[in-house]
């Protein structure tokens, strides 16, 4: 295996991603102390050393300044309005003796300076602290420290060193962003595969994984290519099956036509008997079955035909008129609730056949009332047909859309048909990339719901 192919594998991408995330977090935590190390104990420069030595020299020349009544004068003598210099004297016990107000920054600096063999300077926030310089007067050892405003901004990393919680939050944020990017990088192609798989499961056999996922060089790209190959095979098999069914149905029409012609000639010659009537009946039934099979085949194979943007009422006008007439003949009431404003892009013929099949079933099995209504939602048109019949068992609600499936095994072809009507409806709705569902109504009856995306 070549090195380039090796690093294109998903395993190495995951490994490198988590390794970078961990390394970044560790680097942030470990680098700050190292960077601070060189700045915490900077050697005392000549200017600051001269300042402290001048203070020591003045105190040695005027020992009375160490008297408790004169110690406060040290502050006044070495202060400037623009850059006030504060001088602090400590005794052998480390106590500040020239002021009662000892700033916290000085205490921190004194602890830091204890570990240094020479005077140092340290910038803490906006203050510069420096020292100490030791001197002896009357066998008493003193130390002198200086504090003044910093004349230059301190390095940026001091801010983070003093805000450890912020450093922790930044490390969590950076690692979260990196892990989030890694999750998005892996999740996006999986989401695309999921969408394509769902579309394929709903009957959209032309749906494929997008090119961006296909162009990936890792296992995700290989999976997408395999998925598309599988989808191509499924689409080809289903298309061939539908075409074969259509071809067989078409070929059966020829001998069936001859059979009907022979029957007509026999009757013309005056031959009338029960056998001929039975043959004619079965021939008509076979002709009806072939017609249904051809319709199912055409609906599926003509899915790529141009769609039309028109009103739903206009598309279904003839179907609704026929349904009203059929319901009246059976002393049943058909209620139509379709707004004239509903207008969308669709395949008129398949949609008409889908609605017609469901309506005829509803009229056949309803006791008295059938309702068809259409509503327009934000992203779909919903057509719902409800009857007040007995309904069907819950376990059969999805099976009724399979070809040749009839819920009641006791029904004959006169009452139950061939079991192709709802299969044709299913195919027609799939052509529109929609959904078809059946529900039992309360207290009784059946509801067929057709959802067609705009």
Secondary-structure topology with pairs:
Blueprint: H1 3-7, H2 10-40, E1 42-43, H3 46-61, H4 73-77, E2 86-90, H5 104-114, E3 120-124, E4 127-137, E5 140-149, H6 157-161, H7 164-201, H8 211-214, H9 219-268, H10 274-301, E6 308-311, H11 312-329, E7 333-338, E8 343-346, H12 348-365, E9 369-376, E10 380-387, H13 413-416, H14 421-431, E11 435-440, E12 446-453
Parallel strand pairs: 7-9
Antiparallel strand pairs: 1-3, 2-5, 3-4, 4-5, 6-8, 9-10, 10-12, 11-12
Helix pairs in contact: 2-7, 7-9, 9-10, 10-14, 11-12, 12-14
Structure explained in plain terms:
The chain is an alpha+beta fold and 454 residues long. It is built from 14 helices and 12 strands. 54% of the residues lie in helices and 17% in strands. It has a 5-stranded antiparallel β-sheet, sandwiched between helices. Strands 7-9-10-12-11 form a 5-stranded mixed β-sheet, covered by helices on one side. α9 packs antiparallel against α10, α10 packs parallel to α14 (421-431) and α11 runs parallel beside α12. The radius of gyration is 46 Å and the shape is rod-shaped.
Essential attributes:
single chain, 454 residues, alpha+beta, Beta-Lactamase, Heat Shock Protein 90, 5-stranded antiparallel sheet, 12 strands, 17% strand, HssS/ArlS-like, nucleotide-binding, membrane
CATH fold group of the domain at 308-453: Heat Shock Protein 90
**Mean pLDDT across every amino acid position:** 81
Find the count of extended strands (DSSP E, 2+ residues).
12
Low-confidence stretches: 409-413
The largest sheet has its strands arranged as 1-3-4-5-2
Please name the CATH architecture of the domain at 308-453: 2-Layer Sandwich
Protein name: histidine kinase
Keywords: ATP-binding, Cell membrane, Kinase, Membrane, Nucleotide-binding, Phosphoprotein, Transferase, Transmembrane, Transmembrane helix, Two-component regulatory system
Domain HAMP: 184-239
Pfam families: CpxA_peri, HAMP, HATPase_c, HisKA
């Amino acid at each position: 295996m070549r090195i380039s192919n090796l690093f294109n594998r998903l395993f190495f991408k995951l490994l490198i991603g988590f390794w970078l995330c961990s390394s970044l977090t560790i680097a942030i935590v470990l680098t700050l102390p190292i960077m601070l190390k060189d700045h915490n104990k900077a050697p005392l420069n000549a200017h600051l050393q001269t300042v402290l030595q001048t203070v020591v020299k003045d105190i040695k020349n005027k020992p009375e300044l160490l008297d408790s009544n004169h110690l406060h004068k040290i502050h006044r003598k070495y202060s400037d309005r623009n850059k006030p210099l504060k001088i602090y004297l400590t005794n052998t016990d480390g106590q500040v003796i020239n002021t009662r107000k000892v700033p916290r920054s000085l205490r921190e600096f004194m602890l830091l300076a204890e570990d240094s063999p020479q005077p140092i300077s340290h910038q803490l926030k906006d203050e510069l602290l420096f020292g100490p310089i030791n001197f002896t007067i009357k066998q008493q050892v003193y130390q002198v420290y200086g504090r003044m405003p910093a004349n230059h901004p301190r390095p940026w990393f001091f801010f983070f060193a003093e805000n450890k919680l912020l450093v922790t939050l930044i490390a969590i944020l950076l690692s979260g962003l990196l892990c989030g990017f890694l999750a998005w990088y892996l999740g996006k192609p999986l989401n695309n595969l999921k969408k394509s798989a769902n579309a394929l499961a709903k009957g959209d056999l032309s749906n494929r994984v997008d090119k961006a996922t296909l162009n990936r060089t890792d296992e995700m790209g290989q999976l997408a290519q395999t998925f598309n190959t599988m989808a191509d095979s499924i689409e080809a098999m289903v298309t061939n099956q539908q075409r074969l069914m259509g071809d067989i149905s078409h070929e059966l029409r020829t001998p069936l036509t001859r059979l009907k012609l022979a029957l007509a000639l026999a009757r013309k010659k005056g031959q009338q008997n029960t056998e001929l009537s039975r043959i004619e009946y079965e021939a008509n039934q076979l002709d009806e079955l072939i017609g249904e099979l051809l319709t199912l085949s055409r609906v599926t194979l003509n899915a790529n035909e141009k769609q039309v943007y028109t009103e739903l009422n206009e598309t279904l006008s003839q179907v609704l008129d026929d349904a009203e007439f059929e319901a009246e003949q059976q002393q049943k009431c058909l209620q139509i609730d379709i707004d004239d404003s509903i207008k969308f892009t669709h395949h008129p013929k398949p949609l008409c056949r889908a609605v017609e099949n469901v309506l005829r079933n509803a009229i056949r099995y309803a006791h008295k009332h059938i309702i068809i209504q259409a509503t327009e939602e934000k992203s779909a048109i919903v057509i719902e047909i409800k009857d007040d019949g007995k309904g069907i068992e819950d376990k059969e609600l999805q099976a009724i859309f399979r070809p040749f499936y009839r819920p009641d095994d006791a029904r004959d072809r006169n009452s139950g048909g061939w079991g192709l009507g709802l299969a044709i409806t299913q195919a027609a709705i799939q052509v529109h990339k929609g959904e078809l569902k059946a529900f039992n109504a309360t207290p009784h009856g059946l509801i067929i719901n057709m959802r067609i995306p705009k």
